[in-house]
Here is the input.
Amino acid sequence: MLGIIIGVASVITMLAIGQGSKKSIQAQISEMGSNMIMIQPGAGMMGGVRQSSSDMQSLKLEDYYSILNKTKYIGDCSPSVNSNGQFISGGNNYPSSISGVNPEYLSIRKLTIDHGNIFSNQQVASAAKVCIVGKTIIKNLFPNGDDPLGKIIRFNKIPFTIIGTLKEKGYNSMGMDQDNIVLAPYTTIQKRVLAITYIQGIFASALSEDVTTKATSEIETLLRENHKLKATDQDDFNVRSQQELSTMLTSTTDILTILLACIAGISLLVGGIGIMNIMYVSVTERTREIGLRMSIGAKGSDILSQFLIEAILISFTGGIIGILIGIGASFLIKFGIKWPISIQPYSVLLSFVVCTITGVFFGWYPAKKASELDPIEAIRYE
Amino acid sequence: MNKSIIRLENMKRNFQVGDETVHALRGISFSINEGEFVSIMGTSGSGKSTLLNLLGCLDTPTGGEYFLDDIAVSSMNKNQRSTLRNRKIGFVFQSYNLLPKTTALENVELPLQYNPDYSSKERREKATKALDDVGLSDRLYHKSNQMSGGQMQRVAIARALVNDPVLILADEATGNLDTRTAYEIMVLFQELHQKGRTIIFVTHNPELAAFTSRNIVLRDGRIIKDEANGKIESAKIMLENLPKQED
Here is the structure.
């Protein structure tokens, strides 16, 4: 029974640690926004002069609405308009840019609110003059450490009330300061700052990393349809996903899956061999008992059913105790040394099934051998 | 008194060892009537273990026929012999062969477990009665490893009695015991004999043969002596004549 308990418990714990590590690595990579999709107007030609993509007006709010409503693989979606300028607060000023977005932008870019709130959809609808700011902006506009919440900052003479601050994110891999950011409702930027009706870009997130490619082609088809492009026409927009990141994620996931399979296989093998030995030895040791039982009238089938029932009972109780200990040990690891763990139902089932089958078989097999012996031989077995 | 329990007709048993055939029993015939207390003696290699296995239906003869309680055994298959052993024979082994870590009562109940005619209540009653018969009524719930050799052998005898066998087969039943305990066990066997039990006692110790009512001696697979014991000694008196133990 001890063998089965240890076998089941160790397999479950190993798999829990493996799964936990895999999940946390995956989560860290997707934290970088590997499912993010950016849509920008294409750099088209105007009278023979190639235009900068931000001057193009090919993306409209209708495109945003159709992506929002007609796609299968898109989770969040936000329009985006930008303006550069100087922020002023009292005697301090700082040059930066303001992004007009909707509240979903936060989850697309994996940004989190530190204090305060994101603006509501109502504030978006009413083009409210509110904003949320990143750490770099706070540092430069409020060097005295004042609480920025509720303060008013001016951008190109337009006052914005700060209603939230963003958690620090640091620099990204390109060396860009991700905390130098001001977010406001896109309607406010469109109407009050830029006075435009088109949008400069759309940010979207695929439902998961796996469907990013599908989501990309879905958007491309949809936009070509919206823009009434003929089959021979070039796209007047660009859809970009984080190719590099998602490739990295897939290959890491693949490697981790193989690693996990190895861990599971080896621990099942080791557990199985342990169980096999213990059951085999303990039943073989009882050959004399089997001989005695047969000489006082037990039939071979009596012996077999007795040992089979015993093996099943031992394996099942052992297996269940093993599951409890395995789960307990996993949580101990989780809270004791703060290791990420994740107990999957399949790993519990797998270890239980493999260990109990091994246990039952190696409890039954030596009993079968012994019951086939002559009682005379079995009773003299040393 | 004259009902024949065992009838052997020219029984032979050969073993194949490599290319050689070993003739363990070369044609043995005798019959044992109800109520006899027979000792079977012989040196090692005389074939007495083989004979015992055949008498106990643990083995089948190569030739001849064996009737136990008028049932022909040699044509039976394994399961039929198991059932026959369960109903007709009680075994007492030299090394007791009790289940370890099991109470005396459970050990004695064991043969009845393989007989579906008994309910668990009847099993318990019969086992208690059998242990009472061998003088262990105060040790029903002792585990087998908490008992002395003599007590363990008594439990084994109770186990042999519990199924009301027509025949009790004892294989060197006193072989592992000291003289005093051995005599105590012999007293028990003689009491059982007086109650009308048929007992076959296999031993290589001629001293013990004096307590039985009939002596059969084997040599090289043949019976060389088969005679009634005219002067049965009482194990009880022998026990009393033993020098007193110091404690």
